[in-house]
Amino acid sequence: MSGFRRCHALGFILVMALAQPAAADVITDWNVTALVVMKAANTGGNPAARNLAMMHVAMSDAANSVQHRYAVYVPAAMPAPGASAEAAAAAAAKAILLHQVPGRKAAIEQAFEASIKDMPDGAARNDGIAIGEKCAAAVIAERASDGTNGPDTYRPVTSPGVWVPTVPPLFAEYARAKPWVMKSAAEMRPPPPPDLESERYARDYNETKEMGAAKSARRTAEQTEAVRFWTQANLGPIWQDAARILSEDRKLTVAENARLFALLNMGIANTFVIDWDAKFHYNFWRPMTAIRNGDQDGNDATERDAGWAPLNANPMHPEYPSQAAIIAGVSVGILEAVFGENPSTPVVATDVNDRKLQRRYANIRELAGEIGNVRVWGGIHFRTSLEVGHDLGRRIALYLVENSLKPMN
Questions:
Q1: 59-111, pLDDT tens digit by residue?
Q2: What whole-number distance in Å separates Cα of residue 257 and Cα of residue 72?
Q3: In a domain, 155, yes or no
Q4: If pLDDT is split at 50, 70 and 90, which confidence band does 172 have?
Q5: What distance in Å separates the CA atoms of residue 226 and residue 144, rounded to the nearest whole number?
Q6: In a domain, 213, yes or no
Q7: Are residues 176 and 268 in the same domain?
Q8: Can you give the chain as a three-state secondary structure string?
Q9: CA 54 – CA 50 distance, rounded (Å)
Q10: Which of 16, 132, 384, 409 has the fewest CB atoms found within 10 Å of its own CB?
Q11: What is the Cα–Cα distance from 99 to 50, expressed in whole angstroms?
C-alpha cells in the first residue's frame, strides 16, 4: 500500500534534490534543470508545461538532426556529419530556457557549461551547438503563434447545472490555443457530462458528497494523507520523475530519451488546451455548488446539503473533465507506448516543496489511480470526470505517438 516515506536529507544541491537518476544523460539532466529553473522563477501550470514541451521538442529535433533515429518536429538544421548530439541537445535546451525564463540566465548558463565541459573543443561540439541553436529558434518561431496569449472573449452563461465562476482571462485563452501536433482542441473534445437526472450523476454526486467532505466520516486517515500530498504543485512534476526513473531502468539512448520527453511534454502541454476547451464548452458545476443546490437538479437521489464543503479548496473553474486525470492518462499512455504495457518498475513521488515527503507505487498505473481517487476524496471532482479525463489523456497520447516523432526506419 502506498504511503508517506520520510527520508533523511542527503545534502545534495538543489538539482540533485529533484530525484535525478544516478546515470542521467543530457536529456534528463536538462529536464531536471528546467524544473529547478522554473520553480525558482515561480513558473507553473500552463507556462511551465509549454516551456517543457518547447525545450524537449527542440532537444529531440537537435539530437535527431544528428542521429536520425526519429523524425523531427520542425525541420531546421542541415545534417552535419560528426556533430555531437549531446552538444546539440544541450544548446537547444539552453536557447529555449533563456528565451522563456530569461530571469534565470546565470543558472541556465551554468547548467550549459556543465553539459559541455567534458566535450572536446572542436568541430563536433561546435557543429552540435549550431544545430541545437537552429532547432531552438525554429521551435520558438513555430510556437509564437500558438494563441496562448490571445485576447479574452469568454463570458460565462447561466443555466441549470452550470457553475459560473469568476474566470481568470488566461484560462479562456488556453481553451483557444493551438495544441501540439493536432489542429485544434475540438478534435479531442469529450462527450458531455452525465445528465443531472441520471443514475450515473446520482452515483457520482453521492460518492463525492460522502468521501470528499471536509469532515467526511467515510474517508480514512490514509486517504486524507494522500489528498494532502497531491497538491496542484505535485501533479505535473511526478510524471517527469516517473519518466526519468523508467528511462534509467531501461537505459535509453540520447535519441530515445529525447523522443520520450518530447512526446510526454507535448502531451501534458496539450492538456491545458484540450481540457480548457472542454471545461468552457460544458461549464459544469463543481461538487460544492452541486451539493449545496442538490434540490435544483431534478434528481430524487441527490439530497441537498446547504453547508457542504470539500476537503480541498474549491477550484475557480468548471469541473468537467478533470485535468489531473487527463495528465495522468496522457502520461501513462506515452510511457506505455515507449516502455510497454504497465511497466513493472516502481515509481516514487516526491513532494516539490518538501523533498523528505514521498509516496511509493508498484507501477505507473497504481500512481495514476491514486491521483484520480484523491480528486474525489478531496471533494473537487466527480468520478465520471476522472474516468472520462483519463480516457481522453490516453487518446491524446495515442494521437501524438501515431502522428509525430516517428521512427525513421
A1: 999 999 999 999 999 998 777 789 999 999 999 999 999 999 999 999 999 99
A2: 14
A3: no
A4: low
A5: 39
A6: yes
A7: yes
A8: CCCEEECCCCCCCHHHHCCCCCCCCHHHHHHHHHHHHHHHCCCCHHHHHHHHHHHHHHHHHHHHHHHCCECCCCCCCCCCCCCCHHHHHHHHHHHHHHHHCHHHHHHHHHHHHHHHCCCCCCHHHHHHHHHHHHHHHHHHHHHCCCCCCCCCCCCCCCCCCECCCCCCHHHHHHHHCCCCCCCCHHHHCCCCCCCCCCHHHHHHHHHHHHHCECCCCCCCHHHHHHHHHCCHHHHCHHHHHHHHHHHHHHCCCHHHHHHHHHHHHHHHHHHHHHHHHHHHHHCECCHHHHHHCHHHCCCCCCCCCCCCCECCCCCCCCCCCCHHHHHHHHHHHHHHHHHCCCCCCCEEEECCCCCCEEEEECCHHHHHHHHHHHHHHCCCCCHHHHHHHHHHHHHHHHHHHHHCCCECC
A9: 6
A10: 409
A11: 13
Mean pLDDT is lowest, of 43-47, 197-201, 322-326, for: 43-47
| Cβ-proximal residues to 93 (8 Å cutoff; 6+ apart), any chain | 26, 30, 33, 34, 55, 58, 59, 112, 132, 136
207 and 349: one domain? yes
Is 340 exposed, middle or buried (CB count within 10 Å of its CB: 0-12, 13-18, 19+)?
exposed
Q: Which amino acid is at 82?
A: G
pLDDT of residue 232: 84
Residues 136 and 206 in one domain: no
- ω into residue 321 within 30 of 0, thus cis? yes
Domain of residue 273, residue span? 169-403
Q: Are residues 195 and 87 in the same domain?
A: no
> How much is the pTM?
0.90
